[in-house]
Amino acid sequence: MYLKDMVLDVDGHPGGPITVICNSWVHSKFDNPEKRVFFTSKSYLPSQTPSGLKKYRETELESLRGNGEGERKKSDRIYDYDTYNDIGDPDSSADLKRPVLGGSKEFPYPRRCRTGRAPCKTDPASESSSSSVYVPRDEKFSEIKNVTFSATTVYSVLHAVIPSLETAILDSRLGFPFFTAIDKLFNEGVKVPELKAKKGILRNILPRLVKALKDLEEDVLAFETPALFLRDKFAWDRDEEFSRQTLAGTNPYTLKVVTEWPLKSSLDPEIYGPQESSITTELIECEIRGVITIKEAIKQKKLFVLDYHDTLLPYVNKVREIDGTTLYGSRTLFILTPESTLRPLAIELTRPPSETKPLWRKVYTPGHDSTACWLWRLAKCHVLAHDSGIHQLVSHWLRTHCCTEPYIIATNRQLSAMHPIYRLLLPHFRYTMEINALAREALINAGGIIESSFSPGKYCVELSSVAYKDWRFDHEALPADLISRGLAEKDPTAPHGLKLAIEDYPFANDGLALWDRLKQWVSDYVNYYYPNLAQIQSDHELQSWWTEIRTKGHADKKDEPWWPKLETPDDLIGILTTMIWVASGHHAAVNFGQYHYAGYFPNRPTIARVNIPDEDPTETQWKMFLDKPEELMLMTYPSQIQATKVMAVLDVLSNHSPDEEYLGEKMEPSWASDSIIAAAYERFTGRLKELERIIDDRNANPELRNRNGAGVVPYELLKPLSEPGVTGKGTRDVKK
């Protein structure tokens, strides 16, 4: 039974009826004879707990921790840790075996919620698969809410739409014959006969995607035209847009300033070839056209790089053994213009030496003849496929979903529901674990949508483990992230205390404004409950919570020296602001623009299926490229089934349902019951409304060319509020 609240009408109580907010599933006594406890909205630190409640506070936490044994039932509310040993399915096929992520130096990883399922028969280190992955009962979507809630729409796409698509498009390698065939996805849609049997339910849940043909009895998957393509059909092919999206697109987290020259790899040269990049000073200064020297450009922080060389190069030869995909290590170099925009200078693609082939690498530049121009276009295709993979696997999945789950588990295991910090974090954590479980079922699982549609194939999630080796909690704070990439430096005279290397950096400008507002709200909240150091240090629940996050939730990082200490209110403010930023601002920036920018997949292909044509070509292959370069580009792009599967998923991930709750929109009952906290929250809400106006003003400013101009999609990803639909705005928390 889902219990929303209880109203106790107590005779003689001076405040009238007492309302206890529950918002919880209550199990049957036949599933568990243990009684449930619910607390009023008044928050207490452990030391302030009324004596009559102390026992209930402690026993409730013990119940949530469980004993670490047995398989979890649907009705359980137990939070515990396990490694990611359930991505593979070796009992179904040896090809679906995947390494355990977490618990080893080779594959470190955050922990997930333990389910207790039996081990696989063929691989005892892996957990057996299940059609329904356990999450604690109160982490699951409440059926009381509207059917368009995010978890329902994601589930429907993963378990109904995608299988139907796979039936409709029989040839998994079939590409698009012409660019006009891609346009038909928006004009005519994809006929999916199998949807007919499910159309009544699916059309209600997915009104954007599933539409009935008026004159036929068939259903189609009809894609809405993405914002980028709607505004400018040719933007995807332009260098200016390619550059702009590193600052205002869906992955603004990977651009770095160049600090040394020549660019160098840290990989073993005996295995991967020379460490020094083949991008030379002469080549770049020719592209810069004498405006500035390399030395001066680096000194003035005008040279930037997307560097996926060391991340991808160790996987190139392994990925090339997979049918229908290819990979390179890549570096892409940009120069900052006086208008605060970026201009691409060069792309380096590298294939490491193997047992059968020597090292191959080449540098491409924007060409001045037809062949060079087409090679440049194709080099960009490969880089965009690399960036799409890093975006989805690292910037999105790893950093916002995967790394957040340990915070949720520890919060429920160590902080009582009466604890003020539990109540501060709760709205940012709701339903995240369910979405993560759905991802393990059908998105990041072996043979799932990510593996079948992104360049690294079966190594996709393994790559996110490699990226986790460089993950640092202290760098997840937005100011620290910008500083670590050389995109900002501390300056007390600058807005937000940071001077940006690129003045017109939409993500950073809007993000820092949101960060400041979040931090002020968290500061008001924390300083109210913890007016001095002693209360932080003596709060055993809080200290246990932070210790468990470091030593259990992120156990593979437990000995790192960069973990913040938790000794003062300022320490706590920094930790909490970082967690809330990741769940809200960071997630919004990398998630809600996905359909805007990747819905028209030539702008952001998820996979490159064939090699660039001048890599060891035969005479026949080179002639085909010269005769029909457009055909080769279409062969490089995702196949029809790959493209449509990803488009369907991106549509639903980018979508806001009518009943969504946005940052600063709804006051929690525990905040409303305290006049000081309620007033602080009202100030926070006012500041967020002010941020809406600031972002609108910035988007209207013609001097800010990375967010304003002919055909340019305005940067609204960090606007706090949104109307329903795929809007490219709305800062809600990690629920997709």
Structural descriptors:
3-stranded antiparallel beta sheet, 5-stranded antiparallel beta sheet, single chain, 736 residues, alpha+beta
What can you tell me about this protein's structure?
- The chain is of the alpha+beta class.
- It has 28 helices and 16 strands.
- Strands 8-9-10-11-12 form a 5-stranded antiparallel sheet, with helices on both faces.
- The radius of gyration is 26 Å and the shape is globular.
List the helices and strands and how they pair.
Blueprint: E1 2-8, E2 18-25, H1 51-65, E3 81-82, E4 112-113, H2 150-168, H3 179-187, E5 190-191, H4 199-205, E6 210-212, E7 219-221, H5 227-231, H6 239-248, E8 256-257, H7 269-272, H8 281-288, H9 294-299, E9 303-307, H10 309-312, H11 316-319, E10 329-336, E11 342-351, E12 360-364, H12 370-402, H13 405-414, H14 420-429, H15 432-442, H16 449-453, H17 460-468, H18 478-484, E13 488-490, E14 498-500, H19 506-529, H20 533-538, H21 540-553, H22 569-591, H23 594-598, H24 619-627, H25 629-636, H26 640-653, E15 655-656, H27 669-672, H28 675-699, E16 725-726
Helix pairs in contact: 2-15, 2-26, 12-17, 12-22, 13-21, 19-22, 19-28, 24-25
Protein name: Lipoxygenase
Domain PLAT: 1-40
Region (Disordered): 84-132
Give a brief rundown of this model:
With 736 residues, the protein is of the alpha+beta class. The protein is globular, with a radius of gyration of 26 Å.
Which class do the helix and strand fractions yield? Answer: alpha+beta
Rg from C-alpha positions?
A: 26 Å
Share of residues in strands: 5-15%
Strands side by side in the biggest sheet: 8-9-10-11-12
- The count of β-strands is 16
Q: Provide a count of the helices.
A: 28
- Distance, first to last CA: 26 Å
Unreliable stretches (pLDDT < 50, length at least 5) are 144-149, 212-216
Shape: globular
Instruction: Note the main sheet.
Output: 5 strands, antiparallel
Mean pLDDT: 92
Kindly state the percentage of residues in helix. 40-55%
GO molecular function: linoleate 13S-lipoxygenase activity; metal ion binding
Function: Plant lipoxygenase may be involved in a number of diverse aspects of plant physiology including growth and development, pest resistance, and senescence or responses to wounding.
Organism: Dillenia turbinata
EC number: 1.13.11.-
